[in-house]
Design goal:
heterodimer, A: mainly alpha, B: 247 residues, 6-stranded mixed β-sheet, 9 helices
């Protein structure tokens, strides 16, 4: 934390960025399509932040975060569909359920000393198992999907999360900024120091009095709850849920890409990675349709990932930081 | 030794497959005492450390600190009972800065970040690492890492500090500096120290009492002078001839 004297500059820059982000949907050239692209970026940033807590901060590799997206999405979606429960309440229920699921999976794994790659495999297994379970779960529509009722309305209904893309944009912007603030707070407190100590060396951390098991389970529970909150929003934005897409392995992989490209374990990394990836995706989609090259987008994504891993393995943000002379080689 | 030692190790034993690594070892460390655990390679020193610090569970025997039995406790519980240890193969939190490494130790005593930072800065000063406070630990040299390891352990404010080969790899001048630092610390704060060490220069200068292990058994103990004259000790260190004519 060497930012000390640079704090005013950092604060000013952050304030400018936030105002710019808030003003974006009001600009003349920003239509619903552009807003939908921005929403994609914000979802990636927010899910990345949530995943970053357990893997970036606490060092426990989860490759099954689609599970928590799905639990949040289905909890909020099904409660609204069947009983008209307001989405924000359903979101809380989903977050609680996901926190419990994450904590139980983590506790089972760590109690039996399953770590590293084996832990990652186990997280995939639980996500896949849940996907198959939901394929046969008729209360939420099973494989036919869960469709949330959509009605044309003149005004955005924030309480019921029914409305325009711009409304979702602002909700997601607030959520992402909240995620950033929460991550920053946690990292500056004892729990953040303990998570990082565990990530760096578990034996040394334990010898310094840290109840490693408890802190790892807490990281997973919190990360899962945050992910589920995003999942609930996703349900009301997409209005339709299928187990095969909601719990897809592909989604778990998408979630981890932004933070890895932006800078694993850093605060701004997930956000910067999400913006960079979405921008790259849009440019290549347009190029691809112009040039009629199939799969150009996927190809360039892979190339970008390879380039970052080969050239800047710490991610874009640590590299940007040092280029901008912000000091501090981590956050 | 006083009637109630700070650390009492009683008939500690641990077996690895066919090897009896530690075989009924007993000794005690009084408050403020500095005790060295010495012996040839494979004598069971590090295993004994691990049994005391909770990294290994003993097959039998007891570990009592300040009257409370911590036999079979986890390392973090042993730490909360007042035991801090360093690792023979240093384990810095590589991506964290030097001061953050020490703060992790200091945070055992409370969640106040400012207080943890203050305590950490003080220890870095004491161990001559103040100039490196904001450096990432991965950039430290080996002697610096050893000092960081010691600072981090001390930051937990232990009753007893277990130092596992903390002098090895240091130059003689660095050994002397470390010995002076540890002796000062023990005198100033009443901290007890249990150390294993191959560097005899440090063992002789620092310890009040020496316990000698060989093949997992305690073969001698006493003051540095007593131990250095003990025929059994000379035999295991130097061979039969040096112990005064075999036979």
């Amino acid at each position: 934390m060497t930012i000390g004297r640079r704090r005013p500059v950092v604060l000013l820059a952050s304030a400018l960025l936030v105002s710019a982000a808030a003003a974006l949907p009001l600009l003349p050239f920003v239509d619903n399509y552009v807003v939908s692209v921005l929403i994609v970026a914000l979802f990636a940033a927010y899910f990345g932040q949530a995943w970053n807590i357990v893997t970036g901060f606490a060092g426990q590799l989860s490759l099954g975060h689609a599970l928590y997206v799905g639990l949040g999405a289905y909890a909020a979606g099904a409660l609204f569909f069947h009983w008209g429960v307001p989405p924000w309440l359903g979101m809380l229920a989903g977050a609680a359920g996901a926190a419990l699921a994450g904590a139980v999976i983590a506790a089972l794994s760590f109690r039996f000393r399953v770590g590293g790659v084996y832990f990652a495999l186990l997280t995939i297994a639980f996500a896949e198992f849940t996907r198959i379970l939901f394929d046969h779960f008729s209360w939420v529509g099973a494989t036919s999907g869960l469709y949330l009722p959509v009605a044309n309305r003149a005004h955005d209904d924030l309480l019921r999360l029914r409305g325009s893309p711009a409304m979702f944009y602002y909700v997601l912007l607030a959520l992402t900024l909240g995620g950033l603030a929460l991550s920053r707070h946690l990292l500056s407190r004892r729990i953040g120091y303990y998570w990082q100590a565990i990530r760096e060396d578990e034996d040394a951390a334990q010898a310094l009095g840290i109840d490693v098991f408890r802190y790892k389970v807490a990281a997973m529970g919190l990360s899962a709850a945050m992910t589920a909150v995003g999942g609930a929003l996703l349900a009301f934005y997409d209005n339709v849920l299928f187990p095969d897409t909601t719990f897809a392995i592909g989604r778990s992989v998408e979630i981890i890409t932004a933070p890895i490209i932006g800078g694993l374990g850093t605060l701004a990394g997930p956000l910067i990675g999400a913006v960079a990836l979405t921008a790259l995706g849009e440019v290549t989609t347009r190029l691809g349709s112009g040039l009629a090259i199939d799969g150009l987008k996927q190809w360039l994504f892979g190339a970008a990932l390879l380039a970052v891993v080969a050239l800047q393995p710490a991610g874009l943000w640590p590299w940007l930081r040092s280029r901008l002379g912000l000091g501090g080689d981590r956050r | 030794m006083t009637a109630a030692p700070l650390l009492a190790v009683q008939a500690l034993a641990r077996r690895f497959r066919g090897l009896q690594a530690v075989d009924g070892v007993s000794f005690a460390v009084p408050k403020g005492g500095i005790v060295a655990l010495i012996g040839p390679n494979g004598a069971g020193k590090t295993t004994t450390f691990n049994l005391i610090a909770g990294a290994l569970v003993p097959d039998s025997g007891r570990v009592v600190i300040d009257g409370s039995d911590i036999t079979g406790c986890r390392p973090d519980q042993a730490c909360h009972a007042g035991i801090a240890r360093t690792f023979q193969l240093v384990k810095p939190f590589a991506a964290l800065t030097v001061i953050e490494n020490v703060m992790v130790g200091a945070l055992k005593n409370g969640t106040d970040m400012r207080e943890a930072r203050r305590a950490a800065a003080e220890l870095l000063e004491r161990l001559g690492l103040a100039g490196k406070a904001e450096t990432a630990a991965r950039h430290l040299t080996l002697p610096e890492r050893k000092r960081l390891e010691t600072a981090r352990a001390l930051a937990t404010r232990p009753k007893i500090l277990l130092l596992d080969e903390v002098m090895s790899g240091l130059r003689p001048a660095e050994v002397d500096a470390m010995v002076a630092t540890l002796a000062d610390l023990s005198r100033a704060t009443g901290l007890a120290i249990l150390l294993t060490e191959h560097v005899m220069r440090a063992v002789m200068a620092l310890s009040h009492h020496i316990v000698v292990l060989h093949h997992g058994r305690k073969i001698a103990e006493g003051t540095p002078e007593q131990v250095s004259r003990d025929p059994q000790v000379l035999e295991c260190y130097l061979g039969r001839a040096a112990a005064g004519g075999g036979g």
